[in-house]
Amino acid sequence: MAKFLFITLYDEYCLGVRQLMAELRAAGHEAWLLCMKQYGKKVLRSGEEAPAEWQVELLPSGERSVLCYPYPITPTEADLATRLMQRLQPDLVGFSVYSPQIARTLEMTDLVRRALPTTPICWGGPHATLDPVGSAEHCDFVMVGEADLPIIELAEALDAGRGWREIPSVAYRLPDGTVHKNPLAPVVQDLDSLPFTWHRPEGVFYIDNDTLTEGEPFPTSDLRRSHKIMTSRGCPYACTYCMLSFQKEVMPDSTKLRYRSTEHVMRELEETKARMGHFFLEIEDDIFTLRPERMEDFFAEYARRVAMPFWCYTHPQYARESMLRILRENNAQFVVMGIESGSNRVANEVFNRKVTNKTIIEAAHRIRESGLRPYYDLISNNPFETEEDRIETFHLVRSLPKPFELQLVELNFYPGLAISRMREER
Predict the structure, then answer these.
(1) What is the C-alpha to C-alpha distance for residues 282 and 260, in angstroms, rounded to an integer?
(2) What is the pLDDT at residue 126?
């Protein structure tokens, strides 16, 4: 039996890591999760600078708020984490790395090195997939892309004393400084073959405010009242600012959308209902409203077996009247739809969104007529925009039927993304 300790920073929800944890446990291995610091926002002081990797939201007040602010790890919290790691004695420590938290991830990686000097450290997650070469400088090896299959091979190899150098999807630095990349493992096509994401309390630790708890989420965390779920993987689009578009480049078999069956999802939600009682469901599919027949089947069962309030993502080309009506009838509290730019030129030539302003306005009216509460995402601080593009976006926003909420975030240029390569070529 191999023993894994996963560490996440400012992300107690961490669906990907919790999924791997469930898969390892189902395969007979031990897996723990340390959620280091709670997810939280912070409004920046006037004139306060934000590092380029931070995700910054522009508020109606004119203030700037950092999404997932990397609050410092205190000496007491570092000591609690050290003692926990030394007590568990894992065979491997794995980090799920997001680019906005790279500085804190480096800090925690150094902490692990000091606490467990002979234990290998693996980086995975979005940042490691986008930049495996840079990531390999800071850990023993990197795991690229979806890790459902290679994580089990890795556990079996560690259990047998074979090490990790031959595991698919692994990248590591050679003595000469170059980075060797193993061939990528295939992605799982049958999502019903996977166990439910690990939302149980066992084996999950939380550190924040100089306190360590096991199985007890942070006092103000949405984990206490919400359940996040993904009923599918993949997206039909390839937006230049999105990590999924890069993943399609390096993992071609991930381009096909993969769906869990309605029955598989319902059984997970029934288990959640038995554990939590009343809860708010957050459906994290990139576009939940893609297939009308699937939605009809899904909500026929949902209304009978679950019937909890929820939200989901939609898309201008898939915000159809029939789908919105189904959402409203089944207690959707709101929907989130990406607009990203009100300039047809930017949306299509820069962002590769494949959508027009006419389509956006029509979708917004259908959402308004359905009675659903809309949240619209918009990207700002885009160096590819001209003054004409910004004026076009301004007029589009003015044309949206009220009321609505606008979520305005600054454009980030993370390593490997198509939008980042476009900027380098300018």
Answers:
(1) 16
(2) 95
- Ramachandran angles phi, psi of 236, nearest 5°: -75, -10
Mean pLDDT calculated for residue range 123-145: 97
Residues 276, 282, 286, 287: is their CA dihedral positive or negative? positive
- Whole-angstrom distance, CA of residue 281 vs CA of residue 309: 6
Taking the C-alpha atoms of residue 224 and residue 220, their distance in angstroms, rounded to an integer, is 8
Q: Is 208 helix (H, G, I), strand (E, B) or coil?
A: strand
Q: What is the b/e burial string over 298-318, where b = at least 16 CB atoms within 10 angstroms of the residue's CB?
A: bbeebeeebebebbbbbbbbb
Phi-psi region of 424 (alpha: psi -120 to 50; beta: other; left: phi over 0): alpha
- Determine the Cα–Cα distance for residues 265 and 261; give it in Å rounded to an integer: 6
Which H, E and C letters describe 118-182, residue by residue? CCCEEEECHHHHHCHHHHCCCCCEEECCCCHHHHHHHHHHHHCCCCCCCCCCEEEECCCCCEEEC
Phi, psi of 48 (to 5 degrees): -75, 130
Can you give the pLDDT at residue 254? 79
Contact call for residues 354 and 348 (beta carbons, < 8 A): yes
Q: 7 - beta bridge partners?
A: 34, 95
Average of per-residue pLDDT values in the chain: 96
Sequence-distant (6+) residues with CB within 8 A of 414 are 53, 99, 126, 127, 130, 243, 420
Closest CA to 204 of 374, 337, 11, 368: 11
Interacting residues of 77 by C-beta distance below 8 A, sequence separation 6+: 36, 37, 207, 208, 210
pLDDT of residue 406: 96
Asked if 312 and 287 touch (Cβ cutoff 8 Å), the reply is no
State how far the alpha carbon of 151 is from the alpha carbons of 191, 226, 316, 360, in Å. Answer: 16, 28, 37, 41
Single-letter amino acid, residue 152:
I
pLDDT at 213 over 80: yes
Residues 221-244 have a mean pLDDT of: 95
The tokens for 248 are 């399609």
* pLDDT at residue 255 greater than cutoff 80: no
The rounded Cα 110 to chain-centroid distance in angstroms is 24
The pTM of this model reads 0.96
Single-letter amino acid code for the residue at 290? L
Identify the DSSP state of 44: P
Mean pLDDT of 213-225: 96
pLDDT band at 256 (very low <50, low <70, confident <90, very high): confident
Kindly give, in sequence order, each residue whose CB lies less than 8 Å from that of residue 339, ignoring residues fewer than 6 positions away: 316, 360, 376, 377, 378, 396
